[in-house]
Amino acid sequence: MRYNHRRRLRSQYVILALGQHFVFAHWQKLTLQNFPFDHWMITEVMMGFALFVLFSKMSWHSKFVNVLAGSAFGIYLIHTYPSIQATWASLFPMPRVYNGAWSILTGLLAILIIYVGCLILDLIRQGLFKLTIDKHRGKLFERFYGFLTRKIASIQKRYISKEEAQQ
């Protein structure tokens, strides 16, 4: 059993190494300008699949990791919102950074700042939801449902009374 586990890990590392090899083999210079940015390139898929399989077998029992994992989708939604994306583009003008001497470090720093900023916004959102919506779970839906049923009933009464008046 142990041999099979090591063999599986070894194959995942080989796929990851091959993906990294293909990425670095296509770089002529080590700048962000030459990085292959197209989505769904075979190298990205290989590395993503290998990392997914590698970490899917691990068990995490860390409050910090659980907070990051719980906020991951919120961070994605926040940073892809058009006005937020325009804000990041104005704060971090990346075309000026591409040919710089510190382009990779500056890119990584920008990614870290954007991630932490979106994480803070998502944690604020989670806190506000705990104070408002999560305290009275279902109450907002019940109010909305009651409002809709009253409106539908009043429309039905008006419609039925108009039909009776016409007869």
The gist of it:
77% of the residues lie in helices and 0% in strands. With 167 residues, it is an all-alpha fold.
Give your account of this protein's structure.
By secondary structure, the chain is mainly alpha-helical. Helices cover 77% and strands 0% of the residues. The protein is built from seven helices and no strands.
Task: Give the secondary structure arrangement, pairings included.
Layout lengths: L1 H24 L16 H15 L6 H18 L1 H10 L2 H4 L5 H29 L7 H28 L1
Helix pairs in contact: 1-2, 3-6
Count the beta strands. 0
Mean pLDDT: 77
Q: What is the general shape?
A: elongated
Whole-Å distance between the termini? Answer: 83 Å
Helix coverage percent: over 70%
Rg measurement, Å: 26 Å
- Strand fraction equals under 5%
Order of helices and strands: HHHHHHH
Unreliable segments of 5+ consecutive residues: none
Sheet with the most strands, sense and barrel status: none
Number of helical segments with 4 or more residues? 7
Q: Return the structural class.
A: mainly alpha
Looking at this protein, list some descriptive labels.
167 residues; mainly alpha
